[in-house]
Specification:
This protein has about 220 residues and is of the alpha+beta class. It contains 5 helices and 9 strands. The termini are far apart.
């Protein structure tokens, strides 16, 4: 290896090392803000809140003995890999963002089953492959959502939650309602999220769970 090539490799390694520290600090500050907003939003659900970190790029917040309609809530936030420069750039080019996952166990199981995703999204193709066309029916909305349901109760439930799902559409990656716990699964993008948006988002998820508890019955 020539002296120039060696110098380039060394310089690139130094840049990656410096960026790791910068990216780690960015994720740490950003993650702390998200954690505060999510805990604040989940307080409305009552119960006991616990929080824990998941490595450098994520954390989990759980609610035990939550108030109705929830029995328990498990939320996970996966941050972009900002500390690894090349991965962050690749993720950015793919349209990636911080991701929020909610697994909610309700006090009463939904009578119907519903799956919602966005057309062209990363969940759309694998999800549609999983659904049995003989038992599931799906439709595409004008806004680009794919809503699939199973049985009459599933159809009624899909109709009941449709307005609330449309409100979540800009951030929605996938929403799943199941008769088995956890009954409610939601994957959301947290791109450009601020405190007000975070609180509204969690409030919308509570409204959706309340609708599930009373809708389609």
């Amino acid at each position: 290896m020539s002296d120039l090539a060696t110098q380039v490799v060394i310089a690139f390694s130094v840049v990656l090392g410096i960026w790791f520290v910068i990216g780690w600090q960015l994720n740490r500050r950003h993650g702390r803000r998200l954690l505060e907003w999510i805990i604040q939003g989940l307080r409305a659900s009552g119960g006991q809140i616990t929080a824990s970190r998941l490595g450098l790029s994520g954390f989990q917040v759980n609610v035990h003995d939550a108030q109705a309609p929830f029995k328990s809530i498990e939320t996970t936030v996966l941050l972009e890999p900002r500390e690894v420069l090349l991965l962050w750039i690749l993720n950015y080019l793919r349209g990636g963002a911080d991701c929020f996952v909610l697994n909610g166990t309700l006090r009463a199981s939904p009578r119907g089953e519903v799956e919602v995703t966005t057309k062209g999204g990363s969940f759309a193709k694998p999800l549609l492959k999983e659904l049995n066309e003989k038992t599931w029916t799906s439709q595409e909305t004008d806004s680009g959502l794919i809503i699939a349901s199973r049985g009459k109760q599933g159809k009624k439930l899909a109709e009941a939650i449709s307005p609330l799902v449309e409100d979540l559409r800009p951030r929605l990656l996938r929403l799943s309602l199941s008769k088995k716990a956890p009954h409610l699964l939601v994957n959301l993008s947290l791109a450009d999220l601020d405190e007000q948006s975070a609180l509204l988002l969690l409030s919308a998820l509570r409204d959706l769970a309340q609708t599930v508890a009373g809708g389609g019955r």
